[in-house]
TrEMBL record:
InterPro entries: YkvP/CgeB_Glyco_trans-like. It holds the Pfam family Glyco_trans_1_2. This is Spore protein YkvP/CgeB glycosyl transferase-like domain-containing protein. Residues 250-363 form the Spore protein YkvP/CgeB glycosyl transferase-like domain. It comes from the Bacteria.
Length: 375
């Protein structure tokens, strides 16, 4: 059978501070899933989108994947951060394949008034996404509530897809925790400061900073996106440098992710605090891949998301600081229970949530229209 050819248009930022939080698994980690499914692919990172025609040449594809519709043109991100795609470029990409898939890794529609007051850019997200829809044939959404709204508003088929993880980097043999605390990583917004400073949690819970700040990874990444380089890549003569750039970004992101997983192993658990994204963020499945129990806020009105992992066996859910504190204290005092949670979650993600599986599921859905079942 002839291999499928996919063009992956992947958003990339032009400085490491902004770029690092984007999970490897839903960035160039998609390429691992393509390899596993015998997909021939070409990846274009958006800082080089002005040379897309030259990079593609005479090639044509079966599918174009654009990842991510929000971050590529979110008005929160200015063009100088490397994410912008013009409508002319969208039209050009639409000529390259009969199937064009847009990925949405964050929520689009379902925000509260309070969330939009704290994060005004959320009010513009729907308009950002709708700019892309005329150029697409399919949409993949990480928030289950967005599926029906995308389908109703655009008429395009939309599949719900939880965040996957690269299977080869799931840890089996994990050292004991270095610190007797649970760790949280992410921005301190949407009321998270209250959790971090809560008297019940202060002894058991702390933030985890990136292990990459000030390292060679950050410095090289920023050099690859420096002003002289950005000027250079406006010239087609820079084309041979593109693959040097792409391979460098691949290595930086993979090695950074490996360091990140090791950092998650330092604590007794990984905590996912309330967030304006109404699905399990990549940090949830990364904690499981690192080999630590994951504690997450119980996302309201998302029954399919909740069913992904069994509460009390594969994940521990909480709604209040008291519940979170009780979970952490139990994990601190009961190593066997912590190990059981970890092993159960590992089996689940290996069976249903690797990038290999997710690429296979998306390709099958495009071909048959049949949505995957994740349990």
């Amino acid at each position: 059978m002839k291999p499928i050819k996919i063009l992956l248009v992947q958003c990339e930022m032009d400085n490491w501070r902004v770029a690092r939080p984007w999970s490897y698994n839903v960035h160039v980690g998609w390429e691992v899933g393509f390899h596993a499914n015998n997909v021939q692919f070409l990846t274009i990172l958006t800082p080089w989108i002005s040379l897309a025609k030259e990079i593609v040449g005479e090639q044509r594809f079966d599918q174009v994947w654009i990842n991510d519709l929000l971050w590529i043109n979110d008005l929160l991100i200015s063009p100088r951060h490397g994410g912008d795609i013009s409508e002319a470029q969208l039209a050009m990409l639409a000529t390259l394949a009969p199937v064009r898939v847009g990925l949405l890794t964050e929520s689009v529609y379902d925000y509260t008034d309070q969330e939009m007051a704290v994060h005004p850019h959320l009010q513009r997200r729907q308009a950002v996404v709708e700019k892309f829809l005329p150029y697409l044939t399919h949409v993949v959404a990480y928030d289950e509530a967005d599926v029906a709204k995308v389908e109703y508003g655009s008429g395009l088929p939309c599949m719900w897809s939880p965040s996957p993880v690269v299977g080869s980097l799931i840890h089996e043999d994990v050292p004991p925790p270095t610190y007797n605390q649970a760790f949280f990583s992410g921005g301190v917004h949407h009321g998270r400061q209250m959790w971090l400073k809560h008297p019940l949690l202060q002894e058991h819970f702390s933030g985890l900073s990136s292990p990459d700040q000030g390292t060679l990874y950050a410095q090289v990444f920023d050099c690859l996106h420096s002003r002289p380089v950005r000027c250079l890549i406006q010239n087609p003569l820079a084309l041979p440098f593109y693959y040097v750039y792409l391979n460098a970004v691949r290595r930086i992101r993979k090695r950074s992710y490996i360091r990140w997983l090791r950092g998650l192993q330092l604590g007794v658990a990984v905590v996912n605090l309330p967030h304006f994204v109404k699905s399990y963020t990549p940090r949830v499945i990364e904690g499981m891949a690192a080999g630590r129990p994951v504690l997450s806020w119980e996302i309201p009105n998302r029954p399919r998301n909740k069913a992904l992992f069994e509460d009390g066996k594969e994940i521990l859910l909480f709604n209040t600081p008291d519940e979170l504190a009780a979970h952490i204290q139990r994990l601190q005092s009961d190593a066997l229970f912590a190990q059981q949670i970890t092993e159960n979650a590992r089996r689940r993600i290996r069976k249903f949530h690797t990038t290999d599986k997710r690429v296979q599921q998306i390709l099958k859905w495009i071909q048959t229209g049949k949505e995957p079942i994740y349990q």
